[in-house]
From TrEMBL:
Source taxon at top rank: Bacteria
A Pfam entry, by short name: Phage_Mu_Gp36
Protein name, as recorded: DUF1320 domain-containing protein
Classification via InterPro entries: Phage_Mu_GpJ (IPR009752)
Length: 140
């Protein structure tokens, strides 16, 4: 399930930009390929989940605006790569910022108001416990 919709993409980037990014040579000049946009939104949402799943139950509910923004930025970048052209600097920066924010979520530097997944594994913790005594007569 996608975190963003075609309408979210239109609100952020404009209809003309989406038409230009999805139009092929044999299509009408004013028709956007909604199927292509929905496909990149699904893939972008899966990428977002891959960052969030360590700390949150995915899919995240309710969907928060920063998650929608990150999904749209990743989807826009993917749309611009479909025609083998280099995305504009603004689009590259949007993707980079989205990935940085998602990394911050994964590391705990940023949080969401969502259901957290408690990690009960033996291989990962938020802190490393020290032994109470090294020599047996005190902490140090």
């Amino acid at each position: 399930m996608a975190y963003a919709t075609v309408q979210d993409m239109i609100e952020r980037f404009g209809e003309r930009a989406l038409i230009d990014a999805t139009r092929t040579l044999n299509q009408d000049r004013d028709v956007m390929d909604v199927i292509k946009i929905n496909g990149v939104l699904e893939r972008a949402s899966a990428a977002v989940d891959s960052y969030l799943q360590r700390r949150y139950a995915v899919p995240v509910r309710p969907v928060q605006l920063p998650v929608v923004d990150a999904t749209c930025a990743l989807a826009r970048y993917a749309l611009c790569q479909l025609d083998d052209s280099e995305p504009a600097l603004q689009i590259q920066t949007g993707r980079k910022d989205a990935l940085k924010w998602l990394s911050d979520i994964g590391s705990g530097a940023a949080t969401l108001d969502a259901t957290a997944v408690p990690d009960k594994s033996d291989t990962w913790s938020r802190f490393q416990a020290r032994p109470t005594s090294i020599r047996g007569d005190g902490l140090w």
